[in-house]
Amino acid sequence: MAQPAMSDDSIRTILQKPGYLRQRMVGGITILRVMEPTPEAIQAWYEDCNQFMARWQTGQRLRYLHDIQRSERVTPFATEKVARILKRMHRIPVSDGRGAILLHNANVMNLLLPFLKPHPPANWQIMFFSDEAEAIRWLSE
Question: Rounded to whole angstroms, how far apart are CA atoms 40 and 60?
């Protein structure tokens, strides 16, 4: 499974499953990469997101990047999993959360936009990017 080019000392792999990868960057940015649009990869992402969110705490600073560039296929299965994650995310009272979504398909972005509006008590800033370096810069601010 090909990984984006980054220096070995700035990023480490936390979890790897078929079609899915979670990484952690120096500076506390978590990267969730769905590497293929298969149900198995979507399920691995879904299960990991639930585990990842289970550890979130009020007042915690969160920075994450969802890289879905290689899995931008809209299916009922993927839509249902994304909707469940977003619903859960909106109920977690994060006070300093930034999320970047890395994609190429504007249609997928337009489908996601209505679900990403702020919902108190969560305080999220979520932006879309097509360039990973730009997304990382924004998350690092």
Answer: 30
Write the CA distances from 41 to 27, 97, 109, 131, integer angstroms: 26, 25, 20, 22
- Residue 53, classed as helix, strand or coil, is helix
Q: Among the residues of 22-99, which ranges form H helices? A: 39-54, 76-90
The CATH number assigned to the domain with range 11-140 reads 3.30.750.24
Q: In whole angstroms, give the CA distance from residue 41 to residue 36.
A: 6
Q: Are the beta carbons of 101 and 72 closer than 8 angstroms?
A: no
Strands (E) located in 1-141: 11-17, 20-25, 29-34, 61-67, 96-102, 124-129
More confident residue, 120 or 131: 131
Global pTM reads 0.86
Q: What is the pLDDT of residue 70?
A: 95
Burial class (CB in 10 A: 0-12, 13-18, 19+), 107: exposed
